[in-house]
Specification:
By secondary structure, this protein is of the alpha+beta class. It has one domain (26-120). It has three helices and four strands, in the order αββαβαβ. The chain has helices at residues 2-23, 69-76, 97-109; strands at residues 30-37, 44-51, 85-89, 115-120. The chain has a four-stranded mixed β-sheet with strand order 3-2-1-4, with helices on one face. It is globular and about 40 Å long.
Length: 125
């Protein structure tokens, strides 16, 4: 009986790891390129779609308030933004670019595991 429980536990663990690995597979993931645009009056983070990926099948994350229509479009229909630059306004220049990269990922991907943001100093590099 002990061995049977142990085997069930091992198989369940292996199944969970395999499922998680498939969910984290970059193949078919939505990819964005974001960069910081310094400006005295209104600095921004600009983002451009690199790859819309395949439909993830992930359920939308519940939020306490409705998301603005632009955020819904970014999350649910990134393909419609293929030739656009999405701008995230900032109140001041960022002190730590790691936090700016985190903000870009939060806005562009939310909690979706099948989404990534390449953050850099320039649009292409």
């Amino acid at each position: 009986m002990r061995i049977a429980r142990w085997m069930i536990g091992v198989l369940t663990g292996v199944s969970a790891v395999a499922h998680a690995a498939g969910a984290m597979d970059p193949e078919g993931a939505t990819r964005w390129r974001c960069w910081y645009v310094p400006a005295v009056e209104s600095p921004v983070i600009a983002c451009r779609l690199l790859d819309a990926g395949l439909p993830s099948g992930e359920a939308p994350t519940a939020t306490s308030r409705p998301l603005p229509s632009m955020v819904q479009q970014i999350r649910n229909d990134p393909q419609s933004l293929v030739d656009n630059v999405v701008v995230i306004p900032l109140h001041a220049p960022p002190i730590d670019m790691r936090l700016a990269a985190r903000l870009a990922k939060s806005v562009m991907c939310g909690a979706r595991a099948s989404c990534s943001v390449d953050f850099g100093a320039e649009p292409g590099g």
